[in-house]
Amino acid sequence: MSIHAHATQHIVGEPEVVEDASRVETSDAWLRLKAAATAIQLLQEQDGSIPAHVDEVAEDAHADARALVTEVIAAIRALTPAFPHDQDYLVEVVQDFERWADQGFGIPDFLDSLSAFQPQQHRVDGTRHLVVFPMYTQNGSRDRHVEAVLVEAIWPEFIAQLEAGDYGNKLFVSLRFLDYTPGYDTNSAVLFPETIAMREIPTFTWGAIFEDREAARYRRVVRAAAEITKLDLPADAARMLDDQQLTEKTFVMWDMIHDRTHMRGDLPFDPFMIKQRMPYFLYSLEELRCDLTAFRESVAIERRLGARADAGEALDAVEAETLEHAHLVQYAIIFDRIFRFPITGSRVRNYDGLGGQLLFAWLHQRGVLHWTDTALSLDWEDVPDAVIALSDEINDLYWRSIDRPKTAHWLAAYDLVRSTLTPNPASVWARALPDEILAGLPKGYTDAVLDDEFPLSMFFEALNKKMKDVVESTAGITGRDS
Predict the structure, then answer these.
(1) Which domains are assigned to the chain?
(2) In sequence order, which residues have a C-beta less than 8 Å from that of residue 149 and are 6 or more positions away?
(3) What does the pLDDT look like over 80-93, one tens digit per residue?
(4) I need a surface site. Which of 69, 277, 377, 418 has the fewest CB within 10 A?
């Protein structure tokens, strides 16, 4: 008997039928599905296929895989009654698993079930989904393996009203983890359809973010960073560190506005920069542009609703919650960007890290952020206008670049970044690219960028030494862990 068959031989019979979604994560059917999917991962190659013979112990990997897929299918069928809104998808995913097995476990193709899965059509707070696909997890495993995830929607009324009004984003889905297979026991906080194994690329109609993970790691990292830097947090910001649900809702508002910004504005390129090889600081500016747009829109919402309240007008409950979270989004963007982003991940083309470095240095150089006597402080009344000024600089870069050649835009973007951040002393870009690169193909420009073109400042080097263990501890964190 192979090791994989031995590991699952205790599974006998059909799982119980589950009709109540509120108890799925403790059900026998889910636990069987999770165990079988995890066992399938051990048989899969990076591309998701399963060779007939995995190692010298597994005499017939396909026999093991067929038994495990049978178990997965039985569990999905047992769980389907608990998810009537996903019935079409769950029927299709069973057929995709059957086809994969019947065709000899080649590279998986789950396009049919992916096309049937439409979570953006069920954005009701607390709605649950069972998600099973061969996929890789961004910021986690690059192996396209079978993963199973139980999730529920986070969609408070104030978010529903914002999305139905000036901040429409039909593709955005905000989720909370309930349980998952090992691919999500990582830093991954997204569920994107493009990560799923399929024969062709369809038009994507949704993208999901696990806001409970975003909020939980924010709370852990900012709490530690505030203590280390002796930052006296404003009362509202401190309240977020003690309230997971409050922080989750704040991140939903931030991410919804951020996400829609990728498709809006004066864009000199494909908004998602798909299949484009460019210097990584271009990605830094795009992600930062979207965050700063979420910041400036939150400032606008706060000022508009705050003016009404100051004038004596009574806000209804949804407006009051919107006002509260518009203020909190500003803290979330500032603190996540300046504390977590620069010291998370490697220094190899870390575009999110670079965006955080840029925001910190911009605020410091404009006199609204202070690192004095080994303590950090911010002049909160002046912060909004300073952040919006950086947003204006990036927006102006984009507007001007519509009339520029691609590489001229790259050079202008580099100048914007280095006007605030100091480049690596070994940088060819900082010394001025030689004529043979300037006259050559764009590839030469990109190849000349150092992996760490803008190294960490001494502030962040010191912070990283004290925060490294805290940041690493957030891998796999969920709202239940905070």
Answers:
(1) 3-205 (3.30.540), 278-481 (no CATH)
(2) 130, 131, 132, 177, 179, 180, 181, 184, 191
(3) 999 999 999 999 99
(4) 277
